[in-house]
Amino acid sequence: MIVIGSGIGRMTLSAIIAKVGKKVLVLEQHDVAGGNTHIFEEHGYEFDTGLHNIGGMVGDKRSLLRILFDYIINNGVE
Q1: Which of 3, 27, 2, 11 is closest to 68 using CA atoms?
Q2: Distance, first Cα to last Cα, the chain
Q3: CA 51, 56, 61, 63 torsion-angle sign
Q4: Cβ–Cβ < 8 Å for 41, 64
Q5: Cα→Cα distances 7→27, 35, 43, 69, 78, Å
Q6: Among candidate residues 32, 36, 16, 33, the one with its CA nearest the CA of residue 24
Q7: For burial by CB atoms within 10 Å, which of 19, 40, 44, 46 has the most?
């Protein structure tokens, strides 16, 4: 499967597809993968452009995000 773009959603999809044994090629035009999860610096200040806080969602083992993380990394979220 070819995935165009490397944002958090497409990287999650790619990881799930790869986990079930399929080959995945992720294409990204930017020089760093991650979509809106980048950090950039301007005039000496750092700015993050994406996801800010998922702590509460990951802590709840019943949340969809936690279930996805647990699946992708074999229950490794602590």
Answers
A1: 11
A2: 31
A3: negative
A4: no
A5: 11, 4, 26, 16, 23
A6: 16
A7: 19
> How far apart, in whole angstroms, are the C-alpha atoms of residue 70 and residue 78?
10
Tokens 């083992």 sit on residue: 61
Q: 48 is written with which tokens?
A: 């993050």
Residue 5: is it exposed, middle or buried by C-beta count within 10 angstroms (0-12/13-18/19+)?
middle
pLDDT by position in tens, the chain (length 78): 999 999 888 999 999 999 999 999 999 998 888 877 777 788 999 887 766 566 666 677 888 878 888 888 887 766
- pLDDT score for 25: 97
Torsion sign (Cα): 68, 74, 75, 77 = negative
